[in-house]
């Protein structure tokens, strides 16, 4: 079960970095307006 712990953490980090990327795209989109 210890092997799955880092996997969950990595998945959470991936979700966070992806959300950060989406927010940056959103900001650029708003700046275009």
Distance between the termini: 49 Å
By DSSP, the count of extended strands is: 0
Shape label: rod-shaped
Low-confidence stretches: none
Mean pLDDT, nearest integer? 74
Discrete helix count: 1
Q: Helix share of residues? A: over 70%
Radius of gyration: 15 Å
- Taken as a percent bin, the fraction of beta residues is under 5%
Q: Give the helix/strand class.
A: mainly alpha
- This entry's quaternary arrangement is single chain
Q: Largest sheet at a glance?
A: none
Order of helices and strands: H
What's this, in brief?
This protein is mostly helical and 33 residues long. It has 1 helix and no strands.
Structural features, described:
With 33 residues, the chain is mainly alpha-helical. It is built from one helix and no strands. The mean pLDDT is 74.
Features:
single chain, 33 residues, mainly alpha, 88% helix, rod-shaped
Write the layout of secondary structure elements.
Layout: H1 4-32
């Amino acid at each position: 079960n210890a092997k799955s712990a880092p996997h969950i953490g990595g998945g959470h980090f991936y979700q966070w970095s992806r959300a950060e990327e989406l927010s940056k795209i959103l900001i650029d989109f708003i700046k275009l307006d």
